[in-house]
Amino acid sequence: MLHAVRLPVEFEGFWWTISPLTGSLLRHVYKPHSLFDDINQKVRSALEICEHPFNCEWSPIPSEGRLSEKNFRQLNQMHDRLLWIGNNHFFLSMLYAGLKRNIFATTKEAMSEIALIPEQAIHRDERCLQRCLLAAKTSESFKQNGVLLIGSIPDDGDMHAWIIESDSQPDHMDRGWINYIPMLAIVES
Q: Distance between CA 112 and CA 123 in Å, rounded?
């Protein structure tokens, strides 16, 4: 089961969060407090990497290995379901991703194969949330070591999703994550 942890950020006189129910960027006058604010050590470690991104392990080389045609078809189907649920149904997307289907040993392997899905290749920048949720769903190592982060640039409202796992960023094609302030963490309990 996936659960969300809000990470309130103060920026230009306001507090900013991302709703764990809708995935929307929210502006607050006062620092918000709720049950979604319990930050565990795994999340703290991921935030430390975000604060010091050049300490993060990363490689532009994808993992080797190919899925069988049957498993790649299943991966595509799960990706299509996440697209069908869509960003407007954030909580449902999280629930679906929480129904684990371990296909990959590591999140890096998952990201390498997900990058081969045609929809991801064509619309990579717009599909970061689906890519990360699918990696969390299909990676065995995510439960123990992974944190899915959603961040924003409050000035323009632009948002991005990425994963930090064991002091590394497993997506060989994503370097843009360093430009975003993490405001929501999603971990598996």
A: 16
Q: Are 154 and 119 in contact (CB under 8 A)?
A: no
Strand order in the sheet with 14-18: 9-11, 14-18, 25-28
**Residue 110 host element (H or E):** helix 107-114
Contacting residues for 8 by C-beta, under 8 A, at least 6 apart: 15, 16, 17, 28, 31, 32, 37, 183
Provide the β-strand partners of residue 101: none
Beta-carbon contacts of 70 under 8 Å, excluding residues fewer than 6 positions away, are none
Per residue in 133-179, pLDDT (tens digit) is 999 999 999 999 999 999 999 888 899 999 999 999 999 999 999 99
